[in-house]
Specification:
45% of the residues are buried. The chain is 70% helix and 0% strand. The chain has helices at residues 13-31, 40-45, 50-67, 77-110, 127-135, 152-172, 176-199, 217-237, 239-245, 248-263, 268-284, 288-293, 296-303, 305-311, 316-326, 328-358. The longest helix is centred in the first third of the chain and has 34 residues, at 77-110.
Length: 366
């Protein structure tokens, strides 16, 4: 979901800021549930699930930019092991802490894993199997529920990391024909998600709202978006493309187009197809539009986005219960403040120390 200090050699501040904006919109989608389709506000907020697609696309772009060269000349076992070590160090420490805390709270407060709509409750039909899958971060590969609901996307990204060298060979280093074919496959995967969501009998806020559960649609969703991010990274390498996309008017037009798509209720698939262009233009922007997205507040929220993403579900029920006695605005201030304080603490005391510890010694000497 996020890429931090250990990967800042080529950091693009506008993309960190974009991640921060997306994190706020995903949280707002969960904090203030509203059905899309009844106006500009509902279509914008009620389709906040689509910002998870942007996360996947950003991951593909950032990893291609930082690690694509490791596999440009083919697969290397040593490079792959050290790449996975870095990715595991980035996502696993906080993932594991939240996982253990939520399991413990569920057992202590409720005594089992069958309590729905209860604060911090982990709902598991097959606890032994599901907990094992969560420990390995493979639960959302069509196998089980996530103990922490929103961690399904972390599990899915883990699958994309494993496939990363293959995707680099096809998209970043392959011939143009292969690259174009990969783009078609990525869009096909997203189209399949939309089609399967119509017929799986589960609740979806929209066509691309495929999430945790014993289905493969979240996997297809991530791989489609992740591959589009790699395609944007390849475009970033082409001087003519970068020069054209970095024009301030192009950046403003792209941002405006994406905002208009949300406001006007454009199809989910069309918005997902626009995300790689949004990532590309912000990655090369040198003008005011890129600087606006890279503002210090958005940038800081982007740094904390992984923690806020994993932790925000703990504040959904408190927000609902605080609203009647103290009012919606006051409840929102309390819960958003608590979220960013907890995300800051998680970043400082769990994410960063855990990352340093897990990266202290490379698995395979360089």
């Amino acid at each position: 979901m996020q890429h931090g200090a250990a990967e800042r050699r080529g950091e693009i501040r506008a993309l960190t800021g974009l991640r921060g904006i997306a994190a706020v919109l995903v949280t707002a989608y969960h904090f203030y549930p509203v059905a899309p389709g009844s106006g500009i506000w509902s279509d914008t907020l009620g389709r906040g699930y689509l910002w998870v697609d942007l996360f996947f696309c950003l991951s593909g772009f950032v990893l291609a930019s930082n690690y694509g060269a490791l596999f440009a000349n083919g697969f290397s076992g040593a490079a792959f092991a050290n790449f996975l070590q870095r990715r595991l160090a980035r996502v696993y420490p906080l993932y594991a802490v939240v996982f253990v805390v939520q399991l413990a709270l569920t057992v202590l407060l409720y005594g089992d894993f069958a309590h729905r709509q209860m604060w911090a409750a982990a709902i598991l039909k097959h606890p032994v199997r599901d907990i094992g899958a969560n420990v390995l971060m493979v639960q959302a590969w069509g196998l089980a529920r996530s103990v922490t609901g929103q961690a399904w996307s972390v599990s899915i990204e883990w699958a994309a990391y494993i496939a990363f060298p293959l995707l680099v060979g096809v998209i970043l280093s392959g011939q143009r024909r292969r690259m174009i074919g990969a783009g078609g496959v990525a869009l096909l995967l997203l189209a399949l998600v939309a089609e399967f969501d119509l017929h799986d009998g589960a609740y979806h806020s929209g066509a691309m709202d495929a999430y945790d559960g014993a289905r493969i649609t979240p996997l297809l969703r991530c791989f489609g978006d992740f591959m589009l991010g790699l395609l944007a990274a390849r475009g970033h390498r082409l001087p003519r493309v970068a020069a054209a996309c970095g024009n301030n008017a192009v950046v403003l037009l792209t941002i405006s187009a994406v905002a208009a798509m949300f406001a006007l209720g454009a199809p989910d698939l069309l918005i997902c197809a626009a995300f790689p262009l949004l990532v590309l233009v912000l990655s090369v922007s040198k003008g005011a539009a890129g600087a606006l997205v890279a503002n210090p507040v958005a940038y800081r929220i982007g740094e904390l986005s992984y923690g806020s993403y994993l932790l925000h579900s703990f504040l959904q029920v408190p927000l609902q219960r605080l609203t009647p006695p103290i009012g919606g605005l006051a409840a929102s201030v309390v819960c958003w403040g608590a979220l960013f304080l907890s995300a800051t603490a998680a970043y400082r005391f769990i994410e960063m120390p855990g990352r340093r510890l897990m990266q202290r010694r490379p698995l395979v000497p360089a």
